[in-house]
Every structure is written in C-alpha cells, then in structure tokens.
Amino acid sequence: MTIVHLADRVPEMTGAEMVAALVPPPQFESATFDTYRPDAAYPSQQGAKELLQAFSTPGAPVVKGGLFRRAKKAPPVKPGVYLDGGFGVGKTHLLAAVFHAMPARRKYFGSFIEYTALVGALGYQKTVELFRGSQLLCIDEFELDDPGDTMVMTRLLGELVTSGTKLAATSNTPPNALGEGRFAAQDFLREIQAMSDSFQTVRIDGTDYRQRAVDGTAPALGEAEYERMMVDAATAGTASDDDFTGLVAHLARVHPSRYIRLIDGVDVIGLRDVVQLDDQSAALRFVAFVDRAYDAQIPIRATGHALSDVFSGEMLAGGYRKKYLRAVSRLIALTTS
Question: Which residue from 35, 82, 183, 273 has the least number of CB within 10 angstroms?
Fold first, then answer.
C-alpha cells in the first residue's frame, strides 16, 4: 500500500529538465486533427481545424512568373496563430495536433507558466539562444495576469519570429475581462503591441465538452467512503492524502511550473476537509494545480465542501472568472472519473 503526502514534497527542476518537459501533456500526447471532433452546432470549430491543418503544412503556394522571371512564392502567411475561445472547446487538443502534425526537427509545447519559469531559471538571453532556430513554439494558456511576465514573453516571441520560428498559442482571460468567459482578442493584441501583426486570430465558439457528459457538481465524499477509496487506490497504485488547507498553503512554497512534479507518480489525489477559498492568490495557485492534475488525468477524491463550489461567488464574478470556471469544469471531470 502506497500513500504519499503532497505537502511533504518540495520538487526542484533544472533548466534541462524544464526543456525536456516541453512536450504535450499525457492527455494530448496522441492528439491529432483526426481525433478532434468538431461540434456541428458551431461551424467555427471545423473552420479552425481546417485552418490549423493548413498552418501545419510546410511550403507555400507558388505564383508562376513570366518568361524570364523566376517563379516566386506567394506572400507568406502570418507566422503565428492565436486560438481564441471559451474553455472546453478543444483549443489545447488543436494546439497539440499542430505540434504533432508539423514536421519540425525542433519544436516545443508548454504552458505560459513553464516558459516564464524557464526564463527565470536560465535567464532571458540563454532562453533566446535555446529556442533560436526552432521551427515551432506552442504556448498553452497564454497569461496576461502579470504584466512583467507578459512583456518578457512578448519580447522573447518577437526575437524568435524574426529568426523564423512559427508560433501557436491559446488564450486565457486577462483581469477584468468578463462577459461570456472568452478572451477578447483585441485585449491580447493591444498587450503584445508590435507582435500583433505576427498572429492570425482563430476564433473557436462552442460549449464546454466536459459539461456535455457530466453532472454539474463535484461529489463530496463522507469520511468512511473516502477512507475506503483511498485504501483501494493505494492498493492498486499510489494515492496522495492531504488536508486541503495544508496543501493550498504548501502550493505557495512551490513554483507553479513545478506542480507537475508534486503529483508525479500519483494515481489518485485525495483532499480532506475542503473549504471554500476566499484568498485570491491561494485560489489562483489552486487553479494552476488543478490544471496540472487535469493534464495528467489524475482522479481527485475529496471530503468537506464540494470542489465545484470551492471558489466564492465574489471570485466567480471578478476578473478571473474564466479561470475559475475552467477549473470548476475540470474538477467536476476529475472527481467523477
């Protein structure tokens, strides 16, 4: 029987390990355009799939020249595509499909947090040197929460585009962007200023596919049921068992880029005595933790407050609304799997 406590883990990652981890997460390691299932009710999904298939195909159409002129290529397409849409419409699947489809010798796939953590570990110039000459950079969940990180990434991408790197990114909601839970493309383009001409915005409409098949509540287990499930999980593999408040506090001591190492080798995550979060920073760290657990497709079992209600109504009405709703969607999927 193997039970571990995530709050006891203090993972470290070297720059080399960070680079090696820049591949699609296990959930999307086999994602292709063929396995993406567009919702017929939202034609933009099929349109995005076709556009991204073309983006992933090397070469450009040739324009025939005159008798004494060489044939020349048509004006180049923009070097970057930016997937703008709500959560659960398949943006990450399509991003991973681009990664797998593009026949590039050097290509990287990571979350915004992973790239900024790499800059922090290696320094800006060494990071530029590392990525210079790469054919493709995929950035999942482009963040606009931290102006400093945003501008560092803007500068980095600008240098890579000029050296021939193609870019593909998905969006995340900036602070105070409310409404339908979708990222406003014009806000992103304004933030990255000079980079705007490098991206073609691809809008993807639709409803969260996770909510199509699961109930809208994350089940909260009784103590006896929780203990039984933990024993079963630990007998079959490795289960983690942590007090929710203690784990949330521990997340403040670990960089978000290392959360994936917190859950390394864990088959089931157990959380005792869940309470509703009222601190914005703690809530955002928990969102990042949920994202990594979802990427790894690790089921969660919990007691106390329902995880689908872990974020207060005030938080859900605030500037990080989209992040919290995405996390709730993922928590429901992980607690019912």
Answer: 35
What pLDDT does residue 197 have? 66
Q: Is 2-13+211-335 a CATH 3.40.50 domain?
A: yes
Per-residue pLDDT tens for 117-128? 889 888 999 999
Q: What are the phi and psi torsion angles at 85 (to 5°)?
A: -175, 175
Contacts within 8 Å (CB) and 24+ apart, 262-265: 262/6, 262/9, 262/11, 262/289, 262/292, 263/6, 263/292, 263/293, 263/296, 263/298, 264/11, 265/238
> How far apart, in Å, are the Cα atoms of 335 and each of 244, 270, 307?
15, 10, 8
Stronger pLDDT, 26 or 69, i.e. the higher one? 26
Beta bridge partners of 300: 269
Segment holding 236, helix H or strand E: helix 223-236
**251 CB-side CA count, 13 A:** 23
Q: Which CATH fold would you assign to the domain 31-207?
A: Rossmann fold (3.40.50)
> Residues 24-38: what's their mean pLDDT?
92
Q: CA-to-CA distance for 120 and 321, rounded, in angstroms? A: 28
